[in-house]
From TrEMBL:
Biological process, per Gene Ontology: L-arginine biosynthetic process via ornithine
Name of the protein: Argininosuccinate lyase
EC number(s) on file: 4.3.2.1
NCBIfam families: argH
Domain Argininosuccinate lyase C-terminal: 363-431
Amino acid sequence: MRLWKGRFSENTADVVVNFTQSLDMDWDLAEADIEGSKAHVRVLASAGLITEEEKMALLKGLDQVLSEIKNGTFKPLMELEDVHMNIEARLTEILGERGKKLHTGRSRNDQIATTLRIFLRRQLVGIGSKIRNLLESLLDSAERHIDFVVPGYTHLQRAQPISMGHYWMSHFWAFHRDFLRLMAALEALDECPLGSAALAGSTIPLNRHLSAELLKFSKPTENSIDSIANRDYLADFHHFASMFSIHCSRLAEDLIIYNTDEFGIVKLPDSFCTGSSIMPQKKNPDVLELIRGKAGQILAGYVDLLVVLKGLPLAYNRDLQEDKRSLMRSLRTLHGILDVLPQLISRIEIDLTAASRALEDGYILATDIAEFLVLKGVPFRSAHELVGKAVKWCLKEGKSFSALSMEEWRNLIPQFDENIFGCLNPKSSVERRKTYGGTAFSEVKRQVEKGKALLGEMEKNLATWGEKWAL
């Protein structure tokens, strides 16, 4: 079934058929494509272009095709190129000449632009629900670990004591921003290109506002050329996916490091790790390593799409067929990460013995001591220099801050008094950092409560989109 056979004197070469077919990446669009076609049938009927009997036959035939696809009896043919033509060919087999009326006033250009939006909006609502689950697991972990004091790191060196709950909440806020990006991507999808035809609209009197209404879009797109050329909404999705995968990768990297024997702060569950084929002692964080690795695939998908788009003249070019390859791969990867990561986070334990040992070693309270001096009237830069010299002396003498006597402190910093020992407690250090958004236990509790309220808002937003699109 070659759509253009009237123009050509030769059949398409088999090698060209194999090279140009897109079934390996667009067959997942079948249900969305049929949804768009059913709306188009109703628009054709409303314009008097098909009879009521033809409308009902086409709708029933499309339902039969969808049923065959779902139960696996539909076998798509590569020589028909893509999902659209396979569905239309099967419909014509079922209905005969009536099936040939389906494509009236429509091009595959506006058809795929519509199908992609229908498909992607369903996917994004599902992903949004899974991100909410991830955020809920982070909130639970934050609440469970509020009073767990652990080292915070900069440059992978011990920096300052923090609440482990504060650490979990730092990832909560990053993933919440990803959720907001997802909501923005959904907004960008909410226009209907159906009826734009190849690029110039149609001489056939199609009601594009009715198309948008039937498919539950807020409005039709404004310009038929832009309707066909536009893939911004895919770039919006890929931007969201890339930022989300970066945040997942950073979290995975942290947990991999904190799980090593050298750090030992994080304990991963056996059921989310694997062993070695040769080393009996190994317990490998493969899930986290794969999350880190798969993030690269998602980033590559974003670049893939942008490179396809950057040099295209308006309106449609066959290059756009390739936009689905990176889309499908990124969607599969996102779903996989979101299925496993919340469960892993909920099972992680914190080794307080290892954390305490790391807090006692070194000079993690140096900033607290400098701030102690500031509160006694010493300019901060002077305090910074004094404490830095104290650290240098301790390193030379092989002593930690906690091992110094008052006499030694005063020899190093004359402004010291007995109150300094209140600064030499990691838990006290955490409790004193009460600035808004700080690591103080009270501030972490505030963040957790705010996070719980946001979960409720997220659920409402997802429900609104789901109800709008009858998902």
